[in-house]
Structures are given as C-alpha cells and as structure tokens.
Write a structure and sequence with these properties.
The protein is of the alpha+beta class. The protein has one domain: Ribosomal Protein S8, Chain: A, domain 1, CATH 3.30.1370. The protein is about 35% helix and about 20% strand. A four-stranded mixed sheet has the order 1-2-4-3, with helices on one face. Helix 2 crosses helix 3. The longest helix is centred in the middle third of the chain and has 14 residues. The chain is globular and about 30 Å long.
Length: about 100
Amino acid sequence: MSAPVDDDDDAAAADPVILELTDELDLHTFAPGDVKELVADYLDACAERGFTEVRIIHGKGVGTLRRTVHAVLERHPAVASFTGAPERRGGWGATVVTLRSAVK
C-alpha cells in the first residue's frame, strides 16, 4: 500500500515567495546561474520605485560572482555608476550602485 499523495505540498513549493524590495540584495542564497537575470530584474524594480542607491552583496570568494554582477552593472541602463563598498558596508564582498534618476 502506498502513502497518500498530498498535492497541497507540491503546490505550495511551486508558489513564488514575495519579498519586500529593499536597497540591499544579498546573493548568497541564489544559484549562480540565476544571478544575471536576478540582478537585472532587481535593478529594474529599484529604478522603477525611485531608489537612488543600492548595495549588492556578492561575497568575497574568488571573485567570480563579483565579476558577473559587475558585467550586468556595466550594461544596465539604470546604472549611473558602481564601486566597491566601503569596509563598513561589506568591503570587496559588496558593490554599491548609484542608479540614474527616473525621467518623468
């Protein structure tokens, strides 16, 4: 005899989790393959909501994720500039991004 199947568990696992948009994106919990699209979508959402500065935490590691993030930032139209975070805000494990003002 097999165990009953609980379809509610499968449906709940597939539902997206809605998070509050803040001026900080911590990439530690995301798969590296998702980072390019995630960062671009995050920047779009922040620019749309009028954020002027955000911090992206990519970690220190060997720098692969930082290079990926910087490549996205170099091409994204909402980005005015970016730089490594000051030590008190994550040092070389994070990047501070200045966003362009929205044209109204």
